[in-house]
Request: fold
Amino acid sequence: MNESISLTYIQLKHEDLPVRRVYRIDGKNYTFEFNYNSVGDFYSLMILGDDENPIYSSKLTYLENTLQEFVEGLDLKRKLIPLNLSDVMQDRANIDRISIDNFDSMRLCII
Reply:
């Protein structure tokens, strides 16, 4: 039996940050801004409203849903989970945190 899985994801490169892009998810446009904090060596996602003001911001944490709470004005019902595709076939994750050393191999999966 042949089974296939379709995965929607966002792929970014460290050298492109900071970057602001509009993504269409479930028929609606969302403005995402991705940043890197060099002091703490971590990445963050900010979601902007139609007025370009931030409505949600979160650190990207490996294998955890970036959207952790209900936010008024944000009706995104999906999960946004950072994942290194090489970990999919492993018994356990080879990466414990997102860093400058592995960011380019990450995908922000939209599930």
About this structure: The longest strand covers residues 28-37. The CA atoms of residues 2 and 74 lie 37 Å apart. The chain has no helices and seven strands. The chain has a mean pLDDT of 90.
